[in-house]
User: Fold this.
Amino acid sequence: EGQLVESGGGLVQPGRSLRISCAASGFTSDDHGMHWVRQVPGKGLEWVSGIIWNTGNTGYADSVKGRFTISRDKAKNSLYLQMNSLRVEDTALYYCGKDIEPGGLASWGQGTLVTVSP
Amino acid sequence: DVVMTQSPLSLPVTLGQAASISCRSSQSVVFSDGNTYLNWFQQRPGQSPRRLIYKVSDRDSGVPDRFSGSGSGTDFTLEISRVEAEDVGIYYCMQGSHWPYTFGQGTKLEIK
Assistant:
């Protein structure tokens, strides 16, 4: 159906900040959630944060609560993740995902790599 | 949080044979609207995850009918009726009924 394109990843030192973005296009429904899911290379998938597009309600994994902030810009059809106080263990490929219907993560982007290293 | 437990974690299969992956949740994943938001994803090497199955047994568009999902409550299964070479990868279950969404550990399917 649609397309998700992440950007903004890179190399950052521990304790610093980074904002990653996800541009959405071609979707017919904006009623449900958009999410960030990360994957350490060679490891499994971890849900990081989500936002209900219409209401702006948000949720976070305990591992990032208080450090990461998810937001969206309806006019730009874009999703963001502001990551503060980054840690080495935040190093991962960050995927943007969209619910086409509730609870489904039907569509995924190609990911943007965040590397936290001294 | 709902813990999702998959088995087996490694699944060697002969081409043309059937394969089955189990996923169990630590609590019911029936949502308040009566739906069960249990999904299955395939991740081929070097690719993003791709959803195969949603709401336990509904196949996504373009997914071959050799993939099927079943189950209810806390026990779910993904079955591949005749494994093909293109099915190699890691399979994850995920519940979307409760936030945070949670994934199983992944099952690595390989060809014997």
Q: What stands out?
A: The interface with chain B takes residues 35, 37, 44-47, 50, 59-61, 95, 99, 101-106, 108-111 of chain A (CB under 8 Å). The radius of gyration of chain A is 13 Å. Chain A is about 0% helix and 50% strand.
